[in-house]
C-alpha cells in the first residue's frame, strides 16, 4: 500500500493518504488546509473515498467538512468522539485554536473490531481510549495509524478534558500485546515501529517482562 503524508492545520497534524486501488485512496485525519489536500489529490489523480478519523480533536478534523464538500468522501469516527465533530468546545478548538471551527454534519460511527474496507484493503478499528475516549488506531496489513495514542518514544496527552490516563495505559497494553512488528504512522511528528516502541518507549516499561 502506497502511503503519502501531508502535515495539515495549525498544529501540523499528519494526514496520511493511502492508495487502496488504482486512482483511489482514503485519508486518515484531515486537520486543516483542505485546499492543499485537494490539490494533492488532483496532482496524483486520486479519488478520495473515505476519511478515517483517529479521534475528534479539532487539529485532526477541522479540514474534513471542506474536503467532503469537494470529494463526497465518507467520514468515520468512533461513537465516543462523534459529538466533537459538531462542538468547538468538545473538540478543543475553543481552547487551542484561533481558526474558525468547521463542524462535520454527516459521518459513520465505528466501534472496536469493526472493519472498514476500501479498494483492495481492510482497515481494522482498535479502540484505544485515553487521549480521548473515542481515540482509535486503524490497522491495515503491517501498518498502524496510531493518531495521538502512540508517538515515537512518547504518547498523546492525557490532561485534556475528556482524557483518561488509566484508560490510556490499558490501550497501550493492547498495542504492546500485538504480535509482530508494525510500522506506526503517528498523528504528530516522526513515524516509528512497534517493536522499537516496545523496547524504547518509557510508557511501555511496565508491560515489559
Could you characterize the architecture of this molecule?
By secondary structure, the protein is α/β, with parallel strands linked by helices. It has 6 helices and 14 strands. α1 packs parallel to α3. It is globular.
Give a brief description.
This protein is α/β, with parallel strands linked by helices. It contains 6 helices and 14 strands. Strands 1-2-3-4-5-6 form a 6-stranded mixed beta sheet, with helices on one face. The protein has a 6-stranded mixed beta sheet with strand order 7-8-9-10-13-14.
Spans of at least 5 consecutive residues with low confidence: none
Structural class: alpha/beta
User: Number of DSSP helices?
Assistant: 6
Query: Mind telling me the C-alpha Rg?
Result: 16 Å
For the largest beta-sheet, the strand count, sense and barrel status come to: 6 strands, mixed
Q: What best-fitting shape do the alpha-carbon axes yield? A: globular
Hey, roughly how much beta strand do the residues contain? 25-35%
- What is the number of strand segments? 14
Assembly type of the chains comes to single chain
Distance between the termini: 34 Å
Q: Going across the major beta sheet, what is the strand order?
A: 1-2-3-4-5-6
Features:
209 residues, alpha/beta, six-stranded mixed sheet, 6 helices, 22% helix
What is the topology?
Layout: E1 3-8, E2 13-21, E3 24-28, H1 34-44, E4 47-52, H2 58-61, H3 64-71, E5 74-78, H4 93-96, E6 108-110, E7 115-118, E8 121-127, E9 136-140, E10 143-147, E11 150-151, E12 154-155, H5 165-176, E13 183-186, E14 192-193, H6 194-200
Parallel strand pairs: 3-4, 4-5, 5-6, 10-13
Antiparallel strand pairs: 1-2, 2-3, 7-8, 8-9, 9-10, 11-12, 13-14
Helix pairs in contact: 1-3
